[in-house]
């Protein structure tokens, strides 16, 4: 957040808080197949009809605000720092303001300071010391009290309080969370209360440039409203395998996490979850989970308490232009299988490393992220048709999907540093290799620093398992694979490289050293 000092303050004391942009969770103050099911009764969800005579947002805000809440989370984990704004006084660039300056008093309210001690030290309420709290946003999706927020808002919480638009505070129970999409569902049990709630929009119809209205709890200021437009669709911000964010330019700050972004009909098009900022404050780039993703996840959490996703059992990487050329594939598309995991559905169906998945059940796969999303939205146990590109042709594989396992830490091993005798040079590729100790593949012992192999990251210690999907155990095997590629009119060959027990593929130009 950027604070501007007026003339009474010396301009020489302004400071640049941050010099490099970073991805900051727009989070609490202090990221498969979705099982089928239905959300609670939603026939009375809020909907607003806009008119040309009233082009503002007041009608929308008036109708949807009662459905938006502040979420207060209590945990047993102490805050990382009492001073979340930086500097001794806690305001970036203003750490030398007088202690009684209004700005200091203003930010102390947000930090939770209760009073100043006799020597100027901060003294907090004992209850807050014992039970640290954080705050985020959320919104009701049913009249019987189900509400949606972010997983990172409730993570680590031991108790939850929902603050309604009129200030009423109600206890809530955690129904379920999904860290992979950063979503969570809470439930307020009030038998005598029908809550105002909102519904999810069809985000497939949302266009770049359309208005959105964000309502939430930035910096603890509940019921705050900002407006902007949809800036982009399908953003991948590196938060997880199911990244498919809407980018909006409505002002979103810390505490807005879990809050809704509405269209002008009062329907939720996205759930605010992250911001891109050099300082931690709004710079006009925020990311929201699309309503289609949210609705599926939320339905599963309510029905099952967890999210169940389909699992193909592969490690994948993007198809670059070089890789596509080496495989004879028309364009950089699809998802390249770097490894078919042991005991996984793909391996059982005959899919192997070097295959490129181009479609699932007839739906085209443009990228690894698209493959993860498609498979993740299918039900475990379903048999699906997977199109793979292999040996210059498309093949159809029937795969019975498994259930996506929980997060697992893959074991890694350090490559052997011992180089057996008999080094040979693959001069056309800029590599020196020897047969690997276990007889499977060729161990790289040296890489020409001026070669395409070096440019593409191949290192000494890597093991080349195959060239153009043909296993290689000798110099002759490599030369044969290269010659076959040349005869097919290709300008590159595809190397399957193993490093630290993980496979990846690298395309190398044939004619370059």
Explain this structure to me?
The protein is of the alpha+beta class and 513 residues long. The chain folds into 4 domains: 22-72 and 135-308, Beta Barrel (Thrombin, subunit H); 78-131, no CATH class; 310-403, Pdz3 Domain (Roll), CATH 2.30.42.10; 424-509, Pdz3 Domain (Roll). Helix content is 15%, strand content 32%. It is built from 10 helices and 30 strands. It has helices at residues 58-64, 102-111, 126-130, 151-154, 291-304, 321-327, 345-349, 368-376, 452-455, 475-487, and strands spanning 22-25, 68-75, 115-116, 122-123, 133-140, 146-149, 157-163, 169-178, 183-187, 211-216, 224-235, 245-248, 260-262, 268-277, 286-290, 310-311, 314-318, 335-340, 356-360, 363-364, 383-390, 393-400, 402-403, 424-426, 431-435, 442-447, 463-467, 470-471, 492-499, 502-509. Strands 24, 25, 26, 27, 28, 29 and 30 form a 7-stranded antiparallel beta sheet that branches. A 6-stranded antiparallel β-barrel has the order 10-11-12-15-14-13. The protein has a 6-stranded antiparallel barrel with strand order 2-5-6-9-8-7. The longest helix is centred in the middle third of the chain and has 14 residues, at 291-304. It is elongated. The two termini are 51 Å apart. The model is unreliable at 1-25, 27-36, 79-98, 101-130 and 407-421 (pLDDT under 50).
């Amino acid at each position: 957040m950027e604070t501007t000092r007026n003339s009474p303050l010396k301009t020489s004391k302004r400071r640049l808080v941050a010099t490099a942009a970073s991805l900051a969770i727009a989070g609490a103050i202090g990221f498969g197949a979705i099982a089928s099911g239905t959300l609670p009764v939603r026939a009375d969800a809020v909907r607003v009809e806009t008119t040309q005579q009233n082009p503002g947002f007041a009608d929308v805000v008036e109708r949807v605000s009662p459905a938006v809440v502040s979420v207060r989370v209590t945990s047993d984990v102490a805050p990382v720092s009492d001073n979340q704004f930086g500097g001794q006084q806690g305001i970036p660039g203003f750490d030398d303001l007088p202690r009684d300056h209004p700005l200091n008093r203003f930010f102390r309210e947000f930090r939770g300071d209760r009073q100043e001690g006799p020597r100027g030290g901060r003294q907090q309420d004992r209850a807050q010391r014992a039970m640290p709290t954080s705050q985020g946003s959320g919104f009701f999706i049913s009249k019987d009290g189900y509400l949606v927020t972010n997983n990172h808002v409730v993570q680590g919480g031991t108790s939850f309080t929902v603050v309604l638009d009129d200030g009423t505070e109600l206890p809530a129970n955690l129904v379920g969370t999904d860290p992979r999409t950063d979503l969570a569902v809470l439930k307020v049990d009030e038998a005598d209360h029908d809550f105002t709630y909102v519904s999810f929009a069809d985000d497939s119809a949302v266009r770049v440039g359309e208005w959105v209205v964000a309502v939430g709890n930035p910096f603890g200021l509940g019921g705050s409203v900002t407006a902007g437009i949809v800036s982009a669709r399908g953003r991948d911000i590196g938060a997880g395998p199911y990244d498919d964010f809407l980018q909006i330019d409505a002002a979103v700050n810390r505490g807005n996490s879990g809050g809704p972004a509405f269209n002008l009909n009062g329907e939720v098009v996205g759930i605010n979850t992250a911001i891109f900022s050099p300082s931690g404050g709004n710079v006009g780039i925020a990311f929201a989970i699309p309503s289609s993703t949210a609705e599926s996840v939320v339905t599963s959490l309510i029905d099952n308490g967890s999210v169940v996703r389909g699992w193909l059992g592969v490690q994948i990487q993007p198809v670059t232009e070089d890789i596509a050329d080496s495989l004879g594939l028309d364009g950089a598309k699809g998802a390249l299988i770097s490894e078919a995991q042991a005991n996984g559905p793909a391996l059982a169906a005959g899919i192997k490393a070097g295959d490129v998945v181009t479609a699932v059940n007839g739906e085209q796969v443009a990228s690894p992220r698209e493959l993860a999303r498609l498979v993740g939205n299918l039900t475990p146990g379903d048999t699906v048709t997977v199109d793979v590109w292999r040996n210059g042709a498309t093949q159809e594989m029937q795969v019975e999907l498994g259930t996506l396992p929980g997060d697992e830490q893959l074991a890694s091993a350090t490559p052997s540093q011992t180089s057996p005798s008999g080094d040979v040079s693959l001069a056309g590729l800029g590599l020196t290799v020897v047969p690997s100790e276990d007889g499977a593949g060729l161990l790289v012992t040296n890489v020409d620093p001026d070669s395409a192999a070096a440019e593409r990251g191949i290192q000494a210690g890597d093991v080349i398992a195959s060239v153009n999907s043909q296993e290689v155990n000798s110099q002759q095997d490599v030369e044969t694979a290269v010659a076959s590629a040349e005869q097919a009119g290709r300008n590159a060959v595809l190397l399957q490289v193993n490093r630290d027990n993980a496979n990846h593929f690298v395309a190398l130009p044939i004619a370059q050293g």
